[in-house]
Amino acid sequence: MKVMHLLPSLSSGGVEQVVLELCEGLCNAGVENLVVSAGGSMVPAIEGTGARHITRPIGKKSLLTLLQIGRTAKLIRKEKPDILHLHSRVPAWVGQLACRRIPAAERPFIVSTFHGFHSVNRYSAVMAKGHRVIAVSRCMREHILENYPQCPADDIVVIPNSVDATRFTPEYKPGEEWLNKWYADYPELKGKYTLCLPGRITRLKGAPHLGPILRYLKERGIPAHAVIVGETKKGKEAYRDEVQAGFKAEGVADCVTWTGHRRDLREVLCACDVTLSLTLQPESFGKTTLEALSLGRPVAGYEHGGVGEQLEQFLPEGMVATCQPEKMAAVLEKWYTERPKPRTPVPPPYRREDMIQAHIDLYESLCRP
Fold first, then answer.
1. CA neighbor of 59 nearest in space, from 80, 89, 79
2. What is the pLDDT of residues 5-57, one digit of tens each?
3. I need a surface site. Which of 7, 269, 302, 314 has the fewest CB within 10 A?
4. Each residue's pLDDT tens digit, 72-107
5. Do domains 2-162+350-367 and 176-337 have the same CATH topology?
6. In whole angstroms, what is the distance from residue 213 CA to residue 195 CA?
7. CB atoms within 10 A of CB 239
8. What pTM, to 2 d.p., does this model score?
9. Which fold has domain 176-337?
10. Do residues 278 and 328 make contact, with C-beta atoms less than 8 angstroms apart?
11. CA R_g for the chain
12. Helix or strand or coil: residue 125?
């Protein structure tokens, strides 16, 4: 079996990480993988799995991308993949239109994955037009059914993203050298009740809710300190300043550390006492919360979206009414003296082997005569 994946680029990101994990698992299972994208820093990692990469600018929102339709049709006819797996909207349009230029008998089966909640319009509807449509959570399946009624319910398959249960285990602990450097870099965290908020600095992540949470805990004598781990992308600096001004107004500016992007998130999640999810809107999945739970670290999150589904399985007491920071603060106050333990080991369907096998089963169900 041969699978061709289309996505915009291979820079760091959630979609790119899922494709990397898929290529590794599928190649190990004997499935040939070909990734088509504009390239990026993750190309060596992709090729290291045994997959091939072909550089094509198929992800830009530009009329010039239309030139890639014919070229992609030729590539598909040359490579003859059994499955064309679409991971993003612009590449999905390129892939769908390319297939229309190929004789019906030579076309691959089309699978698309809704990795996130796209704006609902005709442009996004292309993701609901595959022979099979993958939803990364139950709430994503409901989103597709509600907004794209033309997509038959039987064509939607829920395959959650996964965690490598051999790397993210409750037994894992950061090394002494790493811990020494962590506290040397951030001495303000020593002896504190540390609350980790991972993710890019965007309005969606709900960082302003940390202000009232930290003030509530501070007023009760709890030495809470927030650790915001994530990149501030170009153009988002004003928003970060706005959030910091909010912390100052709450009187908790000295209770927040911004680390920026880090490549050692596993160690950071272990070093912090609690991981938070404060998203103002439901997330399609929530990779970092799954990793924290798999490490045996408690997670408190608003009860919507993919994070709510994870907490339902791993740690129900971590589910908090959506967008109610005062209730979140009350949960964290209780956990300061009595920290809960998530369910471990990782249950299906969140293990890496579950995700890979589910994709293989789906592909084979289409290719089977």
1. 89
2. 999 999 878 899 999 999 999 999 999 999 999 999 999 999 999 999 999 99
3. 314
4. 999 999 999 999 999 999 999 999 999 999 999 999
5. yes
6. 10
7. 16
8. 0.91
9. Rossmann fold (3.40.50)
10. yes
11. 22
12. helix
